[in-house]
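Fold in tokens:
===
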Amino acid sequence: MSRDNDSKDEKSISKFIEIKHKLDELQERYDRYRKNVEDYMLDQNITTIEHTLDNQKYRIKKSLLSRETISRKELPPEIWDKYCKSSSYTTLRLTKLK
């Protein structure tokens, strides 16, 4: 491997680590604001918000998603019905409106 490749690889590794730290920080901020929005929606008893930012309209829609955790393919229906586990969680979907 040439020296140029080593330098390029080192730079890529450093950038990767740097960007990962930034993503982690942004994720923390995103989670905090997401919780604030969810709390607001819960307090107001609403599931949809329309908001304008920089002359662009957006919609935030809250929904509940559920998920089963065992493979349905390999089980007879009666066993699936008896033993499947479900988890539910809310999502917020942001849509740019036209």
Notes: Residues 47-98 form one domain.
